[in-house]
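Field notebook, page 449. I keep forgetting to write these up properly, so this time I am using the form the group agreed on. The chain and the ligand, 2'-deoxycytidine-5'-triphosphate, are recorded exactly as supplied. Prediction of the bound pose follows.
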Amino acid sequence: MPDLARFRAIHGAPEEHSLPPTTSILHVDMDAFFVSVELLERPELRGKPVIVGGGSPDQRGVVTSASYEARKFGVHSAMPLRTAGKLCPHGIFLDGHHHKYSEWSDRVATILGKFSPIVEMVSIDEAYLDLAGTERLHGPPLAAADKLLRMITSTTGLPCSGGLGSTRLIAKVGSEQAKPRGLVWVAPGSEAQFLAPLPVRKIPGIGEVTERSLLALGLKTVGDLAAIPHHKLQKIFGQWGTALYRKARGGDSYEFVIDAEPKSISHNHTFGEDTSDTEVLHSMLSHLSQKACKRLREAGLSTRTLTLTIRYQGFDTYTRARTLAAPTNLDSDIFATIQSLFHEHRNLKRRVRLLGVALGSFSQGNDQLDLLEAEKRAKLEKLAKTADGLRDRFGFDSVQFGGSIRHEERNANEGWGQQETRRKNEAEDKKQKRKTEKNPANESDFYPD
Ligand code: DCP
Ligand code: MG
């Protein structure tokens, strides 16, 4: 890979390298995320084969995250714990603690948000950033990416990797190749060359089904796929063939356009057990409103359109939105609106599975407000700012405004059975969502690259 520069985080900062602005998409992914979070409290387990998913290999369930030492034995995520136990008999099996992972994910998101205005968190442990425009602050993209990865690890103690390239696809494949604790830069013009030797399955969006079809055609590597003319792929796969043609060259299958501002900020929660307990539902709405509101303030934005999502038992999902007369970034305004939407639209006879709060129609700052007198509002803003600072340092749950329960209380009240049910519900919902959103003929042209 002559055009591929590979920098491990242990090597010096590559300040001397400068890149044309076209290779500014960075994909950051935390290394063995759940394991790494557990190791913060159990440093004596560093360097050992640690497996998160369940406290023992005799339990039912699957591996959620495996340390790189455990991976040497063939252990990987989604593998049954029993299989992992057989492959790695001296492995250290740990229970998962989901509230901790989401807290650490929030902290990483905060670091990313302070680094670049264009951040898209795509899962609990990965994000895309556009580093174009951050040159004055952080230097050329490669140096900036290196600086960011180091900053994440030095601030949180969690290792991570990154891929830097001209498209999301290249950046994502790059970060996977860089793991663990690495950074891969794919120079502009060398995208096809970088991808060519990789198995087709490494391309985001190519899953088991497409892989099987491609193998049947004798196409094992991305290079094999790239050698097939567009019209042939189109004949075999229809529209999906066009996407495959583009992907094999490093292109995203859809235009990747992100604005400097997010289009919406949302937070959802799936309950361990479907509930109709009004107090629990209110507390959760307050918690979700506060989480969304904190992110809104971090982005320096105010919102006018607030959306409430209620999913009932089964999969019936309702969204109700309200547009405010003037934009706001205050917890109290947002919670009051969400609460009133909930009162108006909730079906009292049905148990609730999921609640969601989404904020949209953004504007910069908060200067058009006169919902409250200026002095009172200034006090509330100061309070919110102090709370946000404490949350950055001590975790989101360190500060809660009235009406919300703390995470620990929620999770302490949630027995193992309920956690299991919640996980099952979430998995089932995801499956349903995928079914409704995806075109089954394609593994999806719109799969998040
Ligand atoms: N996860 C999960 N179940 C899976 C896969 C992942 O619960 N089947 C969780 C645990 C992971 C986290 O999501 O720690 C992030 O997923 P990744 O695919 O990024 O895996 P890791 O971060 O564990 O490892 P890597 O270093 O390969 O990124
Ligand atoms: Mg990861």
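OBSERVATIONS:
- The chain has 17 helices and 13 strands.
- Residues 1-21, 253-261, 405-417, 436-449 have pLDDT under 50 and may be disordered.
FOLLOW-UP: compare against the apo run.
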